Amino acid sequence: MTMPASHLLVGTDADPRSVTDAGWLGWLSAHIDAVWRQHEWDGSLWLFTGDLDSDRTAAWRCRTPGCPTPARGFNGRCASCRKSRSTAGVCEEEFDRAPRRRPTRPVARSGCTVPDCQGELHCRGLCFRHERAWRRAGCGPVEQFIASARPLTRTEPCLVAGCGRERVTRRGLMPLPSQSAAAAMQPRVNVARAAGRVGGQ
Questions:
Q1: Which of 31, 43, 90, 99 is the most exposed place for a label (fewest CB within 10 A)?
Q2: Residue 169 in contact with residue 183, Cβ under 8 Å?
């Protein structure tokens, strides 16, 4: 018989009511070490952001020199660098000497280039909503679109704790260009949300 995840965490002799809802979160709060991985664990947000340079983190930096993107395995490459090396048709060592990385959407925050627009940079110098409007308009010269576009106000923050970027999707999240980009993000765990899932099982 499969044992509930909450019993695995607190023991089979625990009162089931103590590991559900507020009881479960209270137990979890009491058993978290406040000084555990201090530069990665944010107790105020219940958010863990793994340090890619730590031996205790099960995620690694891309091996390509100068690439800041996480890879899925030790001494591996991110999806962008893997595709670039495959397209170049060169060996690992030659690619590392002169990396030819594929362009990616910006990771660092910046602003839309439409004057007075409060949206965050997404691609082509535009925020997510302006980039979609540019596509609907026929993908003409970006400079002409920028000159005629109206500025937009910043939306509410993304619902993911600790994200801070603006909310643009119907689910209340920041935009992600693809599933591979989502997988390439630094490892983050919202413990409170995960605790709610486990406690409800």
A1: 31
A2: no
Contact 156, 176 (CB under 8 A): no
Distance CA 131, CA 139 (A): 9
Phi, psi of 63 (to 5 degrees): -75, -10
Task: Report the 3 state secondary structure along 130-163.
Answer: HHHHHHHCCCCCHHHHHHHCCCCCCCCECCCCCC
CA distances from 192 to 27, 75, 160 (A): 12, 32, 12
Domains of the chain: which residue ranges?
Answer: 5-51+188-199, 60-97, 121-184
Residue 19 to residue 128: CA distance in whole angstroms: 41
- Residue at 33: amino acid letter: D
Residue identified by tokens 């004057």 is 115
Question: How far apart are the C-alpha atoms of 39 and 37, rounded to whole Å?
Answer: 6
Secondary structure of residue 95 in the 3-state scheme = helix
pLDDT in tens, 149-160: 999 999 988 888
pLDDT tens for 80-128 read: 899 899 989 999 999 999 887 655 555 557 899 999 999 998 888 899 9
- The burial class, CB within 10 Å (0-12 / 13-18 / 19+), for 178 is exposed
